[in-house]
Amino acid sequence: MIFRPIYTIDTIYHLDPTELKKMGIKAVFSDLDNTLLAWNIRDSNQEMAILNKKLAEAGIKLIVISNNNPERVSKAVSKFDVAFWANARKPLPFGILKALEHYNLSKENVIMVGDQLITDIQAGNLAGVKTVLVKPLVETDKWNTRINRFFEKIIFFFLNINKKIEFKESLKWMKN
Ligand SMILES: [Mg+2]
């Protein structure tokens, strides 16, 4: 099913660069709001810079793939030297596909991390990268996300029938 993540993890900040490297991962594509930072906080925290550095030391690039406009995304991440791709138009796969091409990456070497099934996971699955669902950093959502969350609950119900979606501190395989 197009909404099923390949992996889950409780938060992007628990990703283990050594494990990713062993998996052949060369880039982590990440959603911004509620995945890397809380949507209602304008400035990102130091955690993002630490993650970026840890990944870089393992030779892995962190690239933010966001539906937000370039101004908002740039404000949030550029001071930490994190690359980004704005106006990605998830759940369409084209933003991810363009970023793959731009950074000269093959889809086998990329994970797409996000907190929403309908936007992040669907886009990642359509693009053919490895998808990783995380728990949203904060419980509240922007109004447009709230609509998605309603449908997401229904999708979770069906996904859980085959294999329960669980979040652990390390990557958990979610395919049937
Ligand atoms: Mg999000």
Automatic annotation (TrEMBL):
It comes from the Bacteria. It holds the Pfam family HAD_2. One of its GO terms (cellular component) is cytosol. GO terms for molecular function: phosphatidylglycerophosphatase activity; phosphoglycolate phosphatase activity. GO terms for biological process: DNA repair. NCBIfam families: HAD-SF-IA-v1, HAD-SF-IIIA, YqeG_hyp_ppase. This is YqeG family HAD IIIA-type phosphatase. It comes from Lactobacillus mulieris. The lineage of its organism: Bacteria, Bacillati, Bacillota, Bacilli, Lactobacillales.
